[in-house]
Design a protein that fits this description.
By secondary structure, this protein is mainly beta. Helices cover 9% and strands 42% of the residues. The protein has 2 domains: 116 residues, Immunoglobulin-like (Sandwich), CATH 2.60.40.10; 153 residues, Immunoglobulin-like (Sandwich).
Length: 310
């Protein structure tokens, strides 16, 4: 068989194999979307809406990680409160540790789910001379989370040059939406100048819960059973882990920061950063990455009626 005939046989085979590989390769998803981290709900009829005081309280909380960050580190816990501990006993005040729950990933569009079980013992209501007790159970999740926001930006070291029309890109703002986390980087505004690009980064709390300083100690004080709770200067704080333009960290230029944390007012905050000493005159497209870390708290409630048993 001559070389020409062999090529006629081999080339179609290679094309066929390449096509098969392309068809069988898993499809990636845009997984860094959504405005939630941990979501919770009481499992149906657990507990039922009505109990008698000779029964056991069995509360099961369904927990789902709907974001893009893994949880389950020390300090990530769920607490059950909202009741008189003299009537409903045996519920641990230290809560329950959250197991490791992976978030969404490139080939995994749904995060992990788990169930947390609290078992309480009911005291007889006769000791309080009441016939009915109606607490509102509250499950509270306290956990650490991370937001990673990425966008493509045009950097122009010489935006006022006479050859601007010949450049490959023009610096424009980037709208990012959400990133699979309760704290979102909404927009990166860019203001080009000779040798310098200035950025205004808008951040907001989109998860409907409370955000607070990053760290295990703050997670402990997030608990509804904590004797001190979170202080005023510990809530509405988001730790700025890094801001990178391409491979260059511009974190030292970012302000205003309170011990590395951005302060949110009415759920909104703004960072000002800049990339300096950019040489050359050619515009180019690169990546911008903003990484935020923080503690977060959300809760759900369920009304319960406890009656005296006959």
């Amino acid at each position: 068989m001559n070389g020409k005939r062999l090529a006629l046989l081999v080339v179609p085979l290679l094309l066929f194999l390449a096509a098969c590989q392309a068809q069988t390769r898993p499809q990636t998803t845009d997984y860094r979307t959504g405005s939630q981290g941990i979501t919770m709900l009481f499992a149906p009829n657990l507990p039922p809406s009505q109990l008698y005081d000779d029964q056991e309280l069995n509360a099961i909380i369904e927990v789902e990680n709907k974001g893009a960050h893994t949880i389950g580190a020390p300090g990530d816990r769920i607490y059950l409160t909202g009741f008189d501990p003299n009537i409903i006993t045996n519920i641990p005040t230290q809560g329950a540790q959250l197991n490791r729950l992976e978030g969404k990933q490139p080939y995994k569009p749904i995060g992990d789910k788990d169930f947390i079980n609290f078992k309480g013992i009911l005291r007889k209501l006769a000791f309080k001379n009441v016939d009915k007790y109606t607490p509102r159970l509250q499950a509270t999740a306290c956990y650490g989370y991370t937001t990673i926001a990425q966008a493509n930006l045009c950097i122009d070291p010489d935006p006022f040059s006479p050859t601007a029309k010949q450049k490959v890109c023009t610096p424009t703002d980037a709208s990012l939406g959400t990133q699979g986390a309760p704290i979102a980087v909404n927009t990166i505004h860019i203001e080009p100048a000779p040798g310098t690009s200035r950025f205004r980064i808008d951040v907001s709390n989109v998860g409907g819960g409370d955000v607070f300083r990053y760290g295990t100690g703050y997670l402990t004080r997030c608990s509804p059973t904590s004797p001190t709770g979170l202080a005023y200067n510990e809530i509405n704080r988001v730790f700025l882990q890094d801001v990178r333009i391409g491979d260059i960290s511009i974190l030292p230029s970012c302000k205003p920061l309170d011990q590395g944390h951005l302060i949110l007012t009415n759920g909104q905050g703004t960072l000002y950063c800049q990339l300096s000493n950019v040489r050359g005159s050619n515009a180019y497209v690169t990546t911008a990455t903003v990484e935020l870390r923080y503690g977060y708290r959300t809760s759900v409630t369920k009304d319960l009626t406890i009656l005296q048993a006959n």
